[in-house]
Specification:
Helix content: 40-55%
Distance between the termini: 12 Å
CATH topology of the largest domain: Rossmann fold
Number of strands: 13
CATH architecture of the largest domain: 3-Layer(aba) Sandwich
Strand content: 5-15%
Mean pLDDT: 92
Largest sheet: 7 strands, parallel
Length: about 400
């Protein structure tokens, strides 16, 4: 079976599909990733064959121009609302409309039997509609976005469907894969086919210091690539100050090299290190602080580690709220809370005090472990191709 994988041009949108791509390869299928230069290096680093389509997209530019210096999106617009999601989704729908002809050229050459894409890539549905092959949509994790985005996509892509002879308008995916356990299904989002989240947090060495448990409880701070780049330096200093109030905790901040020096001096219990594959050392940590990004959130959920969520954008707020409802996390969903070192320190103390959050995180991890593996899902996708 030949499988074409498509993604919007944001590497973190793509990474959730890597374990499924590996499982397809392991089962003997041919896999090709087609994407813009923004995701091609990530796909190649994962050992996948690629073809580059179009120019670099620079997704961060969608957010950074309106931001005053040193201000984060949450400080300018507040927490994300459904209306904001609906407006923001138009970017990705229009992106699909303009990139679809190039993806279709790749599909005509590669002749796939199946197309797999992440939840925001609508070009895959158009390719499947033209070539009359099944399409699989892979959610990132907690998904408050898809129902709202679908409405926009149906409207904006009707003309494209008409021009290419796709009857009935924008097709629905034949299968939707959902790595979020049942406890984290967002209200109003339809149930889907479960697939266990297998962490892929990039490649690279894990320092020996992180591979062993320290003398103090360790908390990792992993806020993704965009948080600090989008006006996040002051918030990082707030978190460093918060850990300074908790000298009995070891804090490990994963920060891109160019930001370590601007952050300035740190207390003795805070270690700033360039990004490290999170799944390589999360088992030595008592808790994690993160932004609610899907891959980080799902990696921590599967590891059974209590979480402090400081959401910044889009679906991250919903993720923090749902995790908090399971007693696996505390979520600070406003800029005022996130910018107060005392509040952050108090939330960390609460997270690490007692069994409530340890128990909640462990129960959620057991739910993740019970989900079918990517290898098991591949067998179902083989049957889907045969049925078509």
């Amino acid at each position: 079976m030949r499988v074409l994988i498509l993604s919007t041009p944001e590497s973190t949108h793509f990474t959730t599909m890597v374990p499924l791509a590996w499982a397809l390869r392991g089962a003997g299928h041919e896999v090709l990733v087609a994407g813009q230069p923004d995701i091609v290096p990530t796909a190649r680093a994962a050992g996948l064959c690629t073809v580059t389509v179009g120019r670099e997209f620079h997704a961060k530019d969608l957010l950074s121009p309106p931001l005053p210096p040193g201000r984060r999106p949450i400080e300018v617009t507040g927490p994300t609302t459904p209306k904001m999601i609906a407006i923001g989704s138009k970017v990705w729908v229009l992106h699909a409309r303009y990139l679809f002809p190039r993806y279709l050229e790749v599909a005509h050459q590669f002749k796939p039997d199946l197309v797999v894409s992440e939840q925001m890539d609508y070009a895959a549905l158009l390719v499947g509609g033209v070539r009359k092959i099944p399409v699989v949509s892979h959610r990132w994790g907690i998904d408050p976005l898809s129902p709202l985005m679908r409405e926009t996509a149906v409207e904006f892509l009707q003309g494209t469907c008409d021009r290419y002879g796709i009857e009935g308008g924008l097709p629905l995916p034949d299968v939707v894969l959902d790595p979020a356990p049942p406890e984290l299904l967002y209200p109003g989002t339809p149930q889907a086919t479960p697939i266990r989240h297998v962490p892929y947090n990039g490649t690279g060495p894990v320092p020996e210091r992180l591979r062993r448990t320290g003398d103090k409880p360790r908390v990792v701070v992993s806020m993704g690539r965009q948080t600090i780049a989008l006006g996040g330096l002051p918030m990082f200093r707030t978190m460093i100050e918060a850990f300074g109030q908790l000298p009995d905790i070891e804090a490990v901040f994963t920060v891109q090299d160019e930001y370590i020096e601007p952050l300035g001096p740190a207390p003795a219990n805070v270690w700033l290190t360039p990004p490290v594959p999170l799944n390589g050392f999360l088992g030595t940590c008592a808790a994690i602080v993160h932004h609610g990004g899907a891959n980080t959130l799902m990696t921590a959920t599967g590891a059974g580690v209590p979480q402090l969520v400081l959401p910044q954008l889009a679906d991250q707020f919903a993720g923090g709220e749902l995790l908090a409802a399971t007693d696996a996390a505390i979520s600070l969903g406003t800029a005022d809370e996130q910018n107060d070192p005392a509040i952050v320190a108090d939330a960390l103390s609460t997270l690490l005090d007692g069994e409530r959050f340890v128990k909640g995180a462990a129960e959620l991890a057991r739910s993740v472990a019970a989900m079918p593996s990517p290898a098991a899902v591949v067998r179902d996708l083989e049957n889907l191709r045969c049925a078509s």
